[in-house]
Amino acid sequence: MKSPSRYKHQHGLSYVEILISTLLIVVALVPALDALSSGILGSRMHAEQVSDQARMLSRMEQTLATPFAELLTQADAVADPNAPLPEPWSDPSGTPSRLLVYIARYDGDDADGDNNPFTGTEADLLWLRVRVEASPLSVETLLHE
Fold first, then answer.
1. Percent of the chain's residues with pLDDT above 90
2. For the chain, does the N or the C end have fewer beta carbons within 10 angstroms?
3. Phi, psi of 42 (to 5 degrees)
4. Domain layout of the chain by residue ranges
5. Structure pTM?
6. What confidence tens digit (pLDDT) does each residue in 86-107 have?
């Protein structure tokens, strides 16, 4: 006959084993949640950039739909091509993701030889630019009558 075992076999998990496994899960979960928050922040920034780009392209299309004579009048009124047009062309100051519209006559053939595209201008060529303030997003085009 077999003698009874001095120790009984354990069935299930002890409190210490559950505590250690919970601690391991918590320790591993912290970096995973940190990585997840970075991804969420990146997707939010991407969504804002896509929205800004769509608004910028829409404003460019609106500007291009303006009659050339009106754009020419605006270009002649601007002394500095690096200064944005006032409202209603550009958004009001303080607007989030403010759109700025620039327009100037353009020297496409550099007839005056100074390598400055905004001097010695041609009569029927305009430069247009729309950009998002405080952002690298911008779009430019040349418009010929």
1. 34
2. N
3. -65, -40
4. 15-144
5. 0.69
6. 899 999 999 899 999 999 988 8
